[in-house]
Amino acid sequence: MTDTEPQRPHERAARHDPIYDTLHQEPDFVELRRAYRAFVFPATIAFLSWYLLYVVMSNWAHDFMSHQLWGNINVALVFGLLQFVTTFVLAWVYSRYSTSRLDPLARRLDEQYIAELEGRR
Amino acid sequence: MDGDQLLTTALFLGVVAITIGITFWASRQTSGAADFYAGGRGFSGVQNGLAIGGDYMSAASFLGISGAIALSGYDGFLYSIGFLVAWLVALLLVAEMLRNAGRYTMADQLAFRLRQRSVRTAAATSTVVVSIFYLLAQMVGAGALVALLLDVSSDTAKNITIFAVGALMIFYVTVGGMKGTTWVQIVKAVLLMAGSALIVVLVLAKFGFNLSDLLGTAASNSGKGQAFLEPGLKYGVSDTSKIDFLSLGIALVLGTAGLPHILIRFYTVPTSRDARKSVLWAIGLIGVFYLFTLVLGFGAAALLNKGDMAKVVASGGNLASPLLAQNVGGGEGSTGGAVLLALISAVAFATILAVVAGLTLTSSVSVAHDLYNGVLRRGEASEGQELKVARWAALIIGLIAILLAIPAQRLNVAFLVALAFAVAASANLPSIVYNMFWKRFNTRGALWSIYGGLISSVGLVIFSPIMSGKGVDPVSGKNLSLLPTSIDISWFPLENPGIVSIPLAFFLGWLGSVTSKEPDAVERYTELEVRALSGAGSEKAVQH
């Protein structure tokens, strides 16, 4: 087991390693947190609004949703399928973004953490 | 027992035999707590993605959604969309950070910086409540499925099925732990995708792969015309039902990232990057599957004859997919029809087994790790003691689920699952999100939000038309509510509590935090932030 948590005092976990304060001040960490939040906060607002728009339109925009586009394919079906498309696309874009922008920063911080622990031995 | 039933029984027993084999194999690979609780954190992103799919696509998805589409047309499709979009919450806000910050349970992440005995108690309580609601839905579904397939409608047969499913899930969990459960879920995901893909291709082939033709036939066969393809057939009848629908939509999209049995799957991979990869795989798999449900549901409406549709209606929609399989295989009485019916039913049964195993494991881990060790023993129990408690907890929770499932058979399966989502979104999601992103969040905020969300979501259902006050169906004369018609305690007009209980839980989390005099655990939050985002110091995979 790699767990190093001391068992006392139990009520509040007191495992505080000063290395986390150091890492927290690192430009890499500041950039990691900024870049992460700059992506996920707007993205979350966007996809939740887009989804709620769909639910609200299904409820209260019946005529628009019932409009037939090709044969028996109506706006409601296309709107619903677009929710699938946007979900797939956003997941893919986030994956690309975090692989190229977030993971290198996280790796450097993790390496710094390991190096610091090794250095104490 | 005729030949068809013999085939069905043989395939069911085949599924059971495979899963038992997997469980025994997994038990030999399991030695410590990290193995039993988190599969040694050794699963790859792809494996875990499949297992998440197997954990998530429950009987409510496979049987329930296609049934809802077959009966209510387009409105049933809304479940699929909510269940899928919800994964973005898990991907963007929860999966990776939870993997880095926690060890085995949802509560670990809260206990990182809050007073752990009280938050562990609260989180374990909501874990067990959500899991039991979900568990009941699956077991009731299993009882109905088996009874209808083997053509035995007696209560005894349903009760025996529920008992057998309960005994199997206790066995998977106590013997196989997380490794056994995960492999059962992976096998199930593959079977489910292959089985439904086969039926989808056969259905589409009947319409020359023209979706518009399929929809047109479904619309005319349903007797409702174009309205069958438009939103509003089920939920558009009144302003109350529209708000009910909005409430359901909110609970679905926010519930997934608060489901404890989904959350603990993120601990089974070595790093947060694998957790992300597994969610991506899960989104792909689940998305394709929900597109299948569209074809299955409208296909059933288009192809099934009056006699079969009557059976679908009688089962609340649950038999739409199996009967559709029989139809595209050649119809009742044909060999092809019998084979496909048996095959799809066995897939549905595997689906149920995989999901109940995941749920039982989740609640027993939470009881052993959070309640027993974290609260009662103040973290001093040995790993062996904790594991022993986990196995006993699985047995007890399994027995409770069996005992509750027998009277719960009158409840609609989809309703139970939707309720589990509403409780998860109200009780769990607010504190998970606050804990990760809000420095001032503290113990009182967590407790108010968890208990407030739990009590308000369950409480509002007790006073909703589900429980009482709906009266009697003018056509069938059946009581539409759960309680006898002489009792009417309903005052909350909606069946879905989410629209009230989710904002309330977020509000209580904020209010509790700002009114508490507890000093901010700034240092712990610093550590949590660094660890959650960078993975520095997170739990590593077990080396065997």
List the helices and strands and how they pair.
The complex is a heterodimer of chains A (121) and B (544).
Chain A: H1 19-25, H2 27-60, H3 62-66, E1 68-70, E2 73-74, H4 75-120
Helix pairs in contact in A: 2-4
Chain B: H1 3-28, H2 33-38, H3 45-56, H4 59-72, H5 77-101, H6 106-111, H7 116-149, H8 155-206, H9 211-222, H10 239-255, H11 260-263, H12 272-303, H13 306-314, H14 320-328, H15 335-376, H16 383-405, H17 413-427, H18 429-437, H19 443-462, H20 498-515, H21 522-534
Description:
The complex is a heterodimer of chains A (121) and B (544). By secondary structure, chain A is mainly alpha-helical. Chain A has one domain (20-120). Helix content of chain A is 76%, strand content 4%. Chain A is built from four helices and two strands. Chain A has a two-stranded antiparallel ribbon. Chain B is mainly α and 544 residues long. Chain B has a single domain, classed as Up-down Bundle (Sodium/glucose cotransporter), CATH 1.20.1730. In chain B, 73% of the residues lie in helices and 0% in strands. The longest helix of chain B has 52 residues, at 155-206. The N and C termini of chain B lie far apart (49 Å). Chains A and B meet through helix 1, helix 2, helix 3, strand 2 and helix 4 of A and helix 5, helix 9, helix 10, helix 12 and helix 21 of B.
